[in-house]
Amino acid sequence: MDDKQQKLDIRYLRMAKIWAENSYCKRRQVGALVVKDQMIISDGYNGTPSGFDNVCEENNVTLPYVLHAEANAITKLARSSNNSDGATLYVTDAPCIECSKLIIQAGIKRVVYARNYRLDDGIRLLKQANIEVEYKNIEDNVS
Ligand SMILES: [Zn+2]
Prior knowledge:
By secondary structure, this protein is of the alpha/beta class.
């Protein structure tokens, strides 16, 4: 991979991390960006569906209807005139298996993430679907 792409990847991941600050979830704040043809075409952070209270947890347990950042970014595109076919997803945390299914079906071709998760079944599923998956540490990369 060329140096320019490497730098862009780090910057988009940093933006996803800043976007995650919008999340009102307490246990974990996750941000995602969908980039296609060098444009950010969608974004998302973990949170409740439209019309629900901005509360993600009850007794420190995540409520079942909380949407993950990736799901929010992908479904936002379903309401727009654009689509994620061939796009790259930048996400602060390794996608879970549920989001990985959506990523595959949304035609996303590349996933770049910054933080590993305890479970790696989502990452394995993406690789199985021939999606390019890359982990990048944004804490050590100062460029
Ligand atoms: Zn998920």
